[in-house]
Amino acid sequence: MANRLDYTYRRLVNVLGPxxxxxxxxxxxVYGHDFAxxxxxxxxxxxxxxxxxxxxxxxxxxxxxxxxxxxxxxPLVPRGGGTGLYGGAVPNRGGVLVDFxxxxxxxxxxAATRTMIVEAGCTWQxxxxxxxxxxxxxxxxxxxxxxxxxxxxxxxxxxxxxxYKYGNARDLLLNLEVVLADGTTVQTGSDRxxxxxxxxxxxxxxxxxxxxLGLVTRATLRVYPRPEEIRPLAYxxxxxxxxxxxxxxxxxxxxxxxxVALLGRSHLEFVKAVRxxxxxxxxxxxxVLEGTKDELAEGExxxxxxxKGEGAGRLDAAVAKALWEDRGYLYPxxxxxxxxxxxxxxxxxxxxxxALEAVRDLQDRMKMEVAVHAALVDANSVALYPYFLDxxxxxxxxxxxxxxxxxxxxxxxxxxxxxxxxxxxxxxxxSMHGNASRFFxxxxxALDPENRINVGKMHEIRTRFTVPGLRRIPxxxxxxxxxxxxxxxxxxxxKFVRRYEAGGRR
Amino acid sequence: xxxxxxxxxxxxxxxxxxxxxxxxxxxxxxMFVRDERALPKDVVHVLRRKADVIVTVKDDxxxxxxxxxxxxxxxTVALGRPADEFHYYRRTLGVGKDQPWGVATxxxxxxxxxxxxxxxxxxxxxxxxxxxxxxxxVNYVAKxxxxxxxxxxxxxxxxxxxxxxxxPSVPLDFAVGDGIVGDAKFRSYRATYASAxxxxxxxxxxxxxxxxGFEYVPNVATGYNLRDLAVQFGAEFLVPTVLWMRLTARPKxxxxxxxxxxDAAKLxxxxxxxxxxxxxxxxxxxxxxxxxxxxxxxxxxxxxxLEVGIGGTDAALAARTKAIEAAxxxxxxxxxxxxxxxxxxxxxxxxSEKLARLLFVGEVVTAAKNVGAAIDRVRSLxxxxxxxxxxxxxxxxxxxxxxxxxxxxxxEPLRIYDLSRGVADLAKGPGDSVxxxxxxxxxxxxxxxxxxxEILFRLExxxxxxNAIEPPATLAPEPVELFPGEQ
Lengths: 506, 487
Fold this sequence. Notes:
The complex is a heterodimer of chains A (506) and B (487). Chain A has 506 residues and is of the alpha+beta class. In chain A, 33% of the residues lie in helices and 19% in strands. Chain A folds into four domains: 2-101, Uridine Diphospho-n-acetylenolpyruvylglucosamine Reductase, domain 2 (2-Layer Sandwich), CATH 3.30.43; 103-225, Uridine Diphospho-n-acetylenolpyruvylglucosamine Reductase, domain 3 (2-Layer Sandwich), CATH 3.30.465.10; 229-417, Vanillyl-alcohol Oxidase, Chain A, domain 3; 420-491, no CATH class. Chain A is globular, with a radius of gyration of 23 Å. Chain B has 487 residues and is α+β, with helices and mostly antiparallel strands.
């Protein structure tokens, strides 16, 4: 084994040079995590730490890495900013982790076609800034835009800021350059036009595939003319669920809001705990408008009327501006704990109140401190983001993760779906998709029949073992340990935030 | 939809490498116009096949029964198949797996022309019976049978103070499922058909009912993107039966502003500027005077007409109208027209029938700034071919426009081929353009497209392992008669 790894190391160095291949304990340890809070016990089942970390700079280098795989037999795991929440970019049995952050160029912003071409490792913030500087607007981006990469977020297929008006990442996508498992590349669409559903456009197939079908190396995105103004408006409401008619009313406004964020009292309490300048905790609705100045004036008036009808009080423009500017720093409370766990799920808007109630109920039963914020995804649905602080060194490690499993279940029960699959939440796939989940394996086999790229995820959970019987965790029992630990969690009560506040903010 | 079937036959029929480039176009042409003298017998055999049974289904259960017959779970004897094509054993023994015999789905209305390769025997499912329509006014979602008419959705939504999220680019009487199994193009200024469909339910080749999406919420980050796969290629691997479509609130006041242009260049500039303005519009459609009069039943105010849909309150719309007028400067006349989709179902269907007599060959996807050039080229093409030509077009906030040429010509294969070829050539002209039509795919032997199609073939084989949905045509060589005349 050692010889094989040494040989692989030499081959990788031949391709990329010694500066862009790492096998040291520290580097591999760092890459054995993403944003997911992983209990130590999980290391018994999975080998999270890659054998090698490589940082390619060009598509050609990525192709050579893929073509080398049949020699090394080590699976390739693509990784962007590592901001995923469920282990999608974390190895399950070691292998070669391909960090795309050196492929971070904005190739060009094309004013004539209103497109921009960016490499997969470029962050959304960088892409946004470059488009803005060129007179354009990249309207949809993830909340972790500073760290999340183009390839990473497209592969996660997520919804983000601006989705209410502009859709999700898939709706911005014209073309992807993808290195497939056989070492060839495919252009999924066109760099100059959105092919939509014509010309066998394969772009949507790679959205949400979490890097299991190929290595995305470049993307062509739609950009829009820069708006004359982006205007955030903030309102306090009696409670988030009480303002339901207002959320419904957003759909019939003459100006479509750009983004609608719903910040629960608990969320602002968490923020206030570590930032004295944060707004006073109260259920808050942030409505962001963008467009021409005359339409914004019309929109602002309409939003004001709508929100006042629900007993909302408008907050000062400076507060609204601060809330909007902090859109990329939603979790400052992270620093008072060893870990942060964020859950994500979409529910129909008419079940939003039920979802909030169920989350509160779950929180009480599990004696946890959970904060909630949400964002409208479109006129009919809302994305919920309950989150809590965690401590991997606590007496019952991983117990709080029972909340994640239960939250995902309740979202499905309410007619919605959880977001993200990764390595740890694969067991949700059959319950989310029903019979259609049977399509997952053929899709993987059609594009990666030899299981070379990001293996053992999406339709199965492969462990670190190669012995039959231990090789995979059956999906039916995969969640069981977390459910049991979740039950145990009811014994102890969380006090992260209260303890921090009582001890005086440091 | 039978993209895979067409492409596979073209690939098989033109696979001799040395001749590929030489014969490719000639073979495609011969196949399309059914020139049997120029085709090998096996290809002729494939092109002559017809569906054995045509069924009109009423619900999912009936479709399931049909699929189970095709995949071998149920005997086919009732359909009168001969013993050697008796598919009862298909699943258990793998016998007949390669037989081109399965279920194909027919659209309710085709805008352009049929596929090259007809269904290869088997069962043709017609969706006309799947017309259920349930409007969920609370959730802004409609549940529709795949054969339910879009116009019925429009009318029901209007009663409830809503709009469908997308409109047909040419106001033909399409069913909502025609966007999947046919070539209907639906869009609005902001939304595409794919983004308007939350969920597609259908029967897969294994006889199971599958939901490729979520009924009341968009499909986001749930693993492989089955919703988009179903909207785009759904008819290749399932029989779609039910769709859940997003609705939007209908503004208090809706206006269809019209602007007449006498010059295509000015129209181009106007549409381009409009899509750069950041204005909240409902639609931005273009038609020539003839197209306009066919749709609106009145004379157009100019040779080219731009329709812009806006919504809001009366007071706000006045200001917005002024801003739009400034953006589309260059028009010769302005006015307001009724919405093209209003009126009774019967009147809409009658108009659709008139429109459907025109010959459509596909749609040119181009940049908004190229709309005028595309219109000019379509007219020139019409003149050179001796037929009257015109266009319908729609623009989106992305700056992209979709120009749909039409010709006053009979739907005769040679004519279709010729005009389609002409439009494909002109789509190469203005730059940043492609033709979205079936034949264009076959002509443009683009390596990227070929690569994508290879992947599509593999996907289709995986998703329909039973080979029961839209099975490909196989070219079986004629057996050589060693002793002619002997028994």
